[in-house]
Amino acid sequence: MSIKLFKYVTNFCIKSRVLMKYNLSTSNNEKLIKVTFNKANGEKVTAEGKKGDSLLDVIVNNNLDFDGFGACEGTLTCSTCHVILNQKNYDELPEKPSDEELDMLDLAYNLTDTSRLGCQIVLEEKLDGLEVNVPATVNDARNWPTFHISRHKTFYGFFPSCNIIVYTVFDIFYSS
Amino acid sequence: MRWRYLRHIVRKYSKDNNRFHVGIVGAGPAGFYCAQQLLKTIPGCQIDIYEKLPVPFGLVRYGVAPDHPEVKNVINTFSKTASNEHVRFIGNVTLGRHITLAQLKHSYHAVVLAYGAEEDRKLNINGECLTNVVSATKFIGWYNGQPQNKNIKVDLNAEHAVIIGQGNVALDVARILLTPVDILRKTDITEYSLEALAKSKVKKVTLVGRRGPLQVAFTIKEFREMLKLPAVSTNFYEGQMNTIENVIGDLPRPRKRLMQLMYDASQKLESRGDKSFDILFYRTPISLLGSDKIEGIELAINRLEGDKAVITNEKYTLKCDLAFRSIGYRSIQADPDIPFNRASSIVPQSTGIYSVGWLSSGPIGVIVSTMSNAFQTASLIGKDFEKGLLSDNPKPGYSYISKILKDKDRITIDWNGWTKIDRVEIERGMKRGKPREKIVNVDEMLKIGGT
Ligand SMILES: Cc1cc2nc3c(=O)[nH]c(=O)nc-3n(C[C@H](O)[C@H](O)[C@H](O)COP(=O)(O)OP(=O)(O)OC[C@H]3O[C@@H](n4cnc5c(N)ncnc54)[C@H](O)[C@@H]3O)c2cc1C
């Protein structure tokens, strides 16, 4: 049993050391900016990034394991890097969300008025210590309307009140 | 019970895991996302992904529009999963033709069906087999180089194209028809479709839906793209948009923003060019008219009762010389042993045989919804594994299936084979200033990447 476990733990340690080293080496002349991600399951993850990095970069560069985060790699074609800020931080961000960002946010689960896409939030020194909530995604069964009930009912039922997006469903009504 | 649980914990972290075999059918987003998550939930398990075509990625390669290259970035994540030492890709193998579910059950502790929803729904009205009545699915397969659709007949020497359906797929078709060819030239659209589109005479595209603006299925990003198309005016029919003005304010934000954008567009009267994109609501096609080639569509005028469209006696004809049906997809039962729900055309979960993606959820949602669905099923499999619900006996995995394929002289493609095809496609694309030129001939793919 333990060989695998042991290997996993050692690998993990090596990896994180390498990472720390990497971070240290890049931090020589640049101040690192700290961000805390509050995950839906209660876990808090703190990581650092450089000025000019987006929140998505921070997650990718630190190898943080956020399932499915950043599926489109920061090209504004998905909403997997959805984060929620507090009102103060939201208002202080220099860039307001563009129409294109809002369009993608409209497809995010648990959308709020202070939601942003992580790939569009760019770190700067005054954001040091920023805390964002990473909302529960559909992976969280409690927030996921079951798909296995009759399609008609599902989409009739949940559409207007829920942000789940529908690719072609309503078209299906033709054939029934 | 407790002992059993302990045994599985032990198994979870022991070398024995290497003997836990999972067979996935279908190498689209659902299959890859499920594999990615299974590697985490059952560390060390061996995953084999079977794919009907020689090449992977399903609708990301053959559905997603060529002018949406960013959407295809998910391929990088899929390739990372496929390169894992515990993941094997086996292309050019069809469940129900070259292998059966019974054989998969014999070889694997868990079988995951991820073969999508490939069939398109028909209108089932008169005239559907007239020339130039085209399935949107096939048209999309055609411009994306899907081998089985490379030869479909579509005559673009037509002025007015009508698309029946108001989802994102319908918008994809409309956008490809109305986008200047010089923009498409820089995408991975197939060369033969570029040639055909360059000669296209289509000036007007009408999107027809049974219900009203509040019920459209397309999303805001795709609609906004239509508004930005060079030299294309977006038009609504008189009187069809007025009614929504009063309700916009009460809608939840996503619908509100889409409705506002549509409403604002309907108030702009100036023409942006010689092409037009028209949206027509409250119409049900009754029959497709014409003697040999389509000449028009007989439409019934609908009234909304609640959220439902009800046909009235009023009818009229909308002239057109090209028509697409884009009213959704449906899954098929690929093998008679698959626990297939005929009423809803999906495969429900059962212990040992799971479904993911469009086969599980129905043909709805973007890649991200497919991802969530696949992650969820993967964690269900992990739970079943931990509870000891999946067989503990050793299973042969690919060694059994590979014998069957060998006996049938079936040429297969492994991941290395795909990377060879990928390289050739990228090279050919480079010569034309495109990201890739897809190979559309299965034999040619097999020659380059087959083993
Ligand atoms: C036209 C179109 C455009 C789209 N555009 C977008 C977009 O821009 N953005 C977005 O987010 N989403 C888009 N989507 C949605 C997205 O493509 C789907 O959410 C996703 O592909 C579903 O994944 P899947 O794995 O369930 O099915 P698929 O992608 O269909 O994958 C199924 C795979 O199984 C294989 N297969 C089928 N039968 C068998 C068999 N018997 N044996 C073995 N293998 C088999 C198929 O060849 C295929 O590779 C689009 C969908 C369509 C139809």
UniProtKB/TrEMBL annotation, chain A:
Q: Name one GO biological process term.
A: P450-containing electron transport chain
* Transmembrane helix found in the keyword field: yes
Look up the domain of life of the source: Eukaryota
Enumerate the transmembrane spans: 155-174
Domain 2Fe-2S ferredoxin-type per the UniProt entry, residue ranges? 33-138
- Name-wise, this protein is Adrenodoxin,Beta-grasp domain,2Fe-2S ferredoxin-type iron-sulfur binding domain,Adrenodoxin, iron-sulphur
Q: Which InterPro entries match?
A: 2Fe-2S_ferredoxin-like_sf, 2Fe-2S_ferredoxin-type, Adrenodoxin-like, Adrenodoxin_Fe-S_BS, Beta-grasp_dom_sf
CDD domains per record: fer2
Q: Does this UniProt record's set of keywords contain Transport?
A: yes
Q: Which GO terms describe its molecular function?
A: 2 iron, 2 sulfur cluster binding; electron transfer activity; metal ion binding
Q: Where found? A: Mitochondrion
Its annotated function is as follows: Required for ecdysteroidogenesis in the prothoracic gland which is necessary for larval to pupal transition.
- Keywords, ordered alphabetically: 2Fe-2S, Electron transport, Iron, Iron-sulfur, Lipid metabolism, Membrane, Metal-binding, Mitochondrion, Steroid metabolism, Steroidogenesis, Transmembrane, Transmembrane helix, Transport
> What Gene Ontology cellular-component terms does the record carry?
mitochondrion
- Similarity comment: family membership: Belongs to the adrenodoxin/putidaredoxin family.
Cofactor(s) required for function per UniProt: [2Fe-2S] cluster
From TrEMBL, chain B:
Biological process (GO) annotations? cholesterol metabolic process
**Which residues are involved in binding FAD?**
30, 51, 59, 95, 358, 365-367
Which residues are NADP(+)-binding? 166-169, 210-211, 222, 365
Tell me the leader sequence span: none
Q: Which GO terms describe its molecular function?
A: oxidoreductase activity
Superkingdom to which the source organism belongs: Eukaryota
Name any GO cellular component annotation: mitochondrion
Ranges where the FAD/NAD(P)-binding domain occurs: 21-214
The record's principal subcellular location, in a coarse class, is mitochondrion
Cofactor(s) annotated in UniProt: FAD
- Keywords (A to Z) from UniProt: Electron transport, FAD, Flavoprotein, Membrane, Mitochondrion, NADP, Oxidoreductase, Transmembrane, Transmembrane helix, Transport
Pathway in which this enzyme or protein is active? Steroid metabolism; cholesterol metabolism
Q: What is its EC number?
A: 1.18.1.6
Subcellular localization is given as: Mitochondrion
Q: Which reaction does it catalyse?
A: 2 reduced [adrenodoxin] + NADP(+) + H(+) = 2 oxidized [adrenodoxin] + NADPH
Recorded hits in Pfam families, A to Z, give: Pyr_redox_2 (PF07992)
Segments crossing the lipid bilayer: 20-39
In terms of PANTHER family, this protein maps to:
GLUTAMATE SYNTHASE 1 [NADH], CHLOROPLASTIC-LIKE
Q: Which family does it belong to?
A: Belongs to the ferredoxin--NADP reductase type 1 family.
Q: What is this protein called?
A: NADPH:adrenodoxin oxidoreductase, mitochondrial
Organism expressing this protein natively: Cinara cedri
